[in-house]
Write a structure and sequence with these properties.
Layout (H helix, E strand, L loop, with lengths): L25 H13 L12 E5 L5 H8 L4 E6 L2 H14 L5 E5 L12 E6 L7 H11 L3 E12 L12 E5 L2 E7 L3
Parallel strand pairs: 1-2, 1-4, 2-3, 4-5
Antiparallel strand pairs: 5-7, 6-7
């Protein structure tokens, strides 16, 4: 697993041993970030001033990919100790300590946000209906700007997220990526 684009393209990322995390595949991440770059609602400036939130962060690959592509700051939210250790190692390998924050937090019961984030990546364990629960909790605790771009990964065998007018809804192997604007 590696960063697939931007200033740190090719940087190898560490994943925790075992099956507690399911990192987004490099090819899926490449397709996702290409979509974000080329979509009419995205573009090269999408990450320029956006604080990014990587929820159920696992390895931190999505947040680190956003940093590599110009995001000034990323916050990683993860409750699994092995995953947090992998994220910390990946942040150190990237040399991004000053541009990141790693929280030991359950996304369905997050702490109060110090500042809202304009882009949120949610890649929870599949088939547990965690995206709606986490989004509700994150919104209540002030983690999302009113028009935040939400990017959620779920399994293709799960029912689609109940999102009216998603900006994108694509399948990549076993993953389904749904993107929409926060309605808060």
């Amino acid at each position: 697993m590696r960063i697939v684009g931007g200033e740190r393209r090719g940087l190898t990322l560490r994943a925790p041993a075992g099956h507690t995390t399911r990192p987004t595949a490099d090819r899926t991440r490449q397709a996702l970030f290409d979509m974000l770059l080329h979509a009419p609602w995205g573009g090269r400036d999408l990450f320029g001033n956006a604080a990014v939130l990587d929820v159920f962060a696992g390895t931190g690959a999505l947040g680190l990919e956003a940093l590599s592509r110009g995001a000034p700051h990323a916050t990683f939210m993860e409750k699994d100790p092995a995953a947090r250790a992998a994220i910390a190692a990946n942040i150190a390998a990237y040399r991004a300590e000053s541009r990141t924050r790693l929280l030991n937090a359950d996304a369905t019961r997050p702490p109060r946000a110090p500042t809202p984030h304009a882009i949120a990546f949610l890649d929870p364990p599949y088939a547990q209906d965690l995206v709606p629960r986490a989004l509700d909790a994150l919104a209540r605790q002030g983690w999302l700007t009113p028009d935040a771009l939400i990017v959620a990964e779920t399994g293709t065998d799960e029912p689609p997220l109940a999102i009216e007018n998603p900006l994108a809804d694509r399948r990549f192997g076993a993953a389904r990526i749904t993107i929409w604007r926060n309605a808060g």
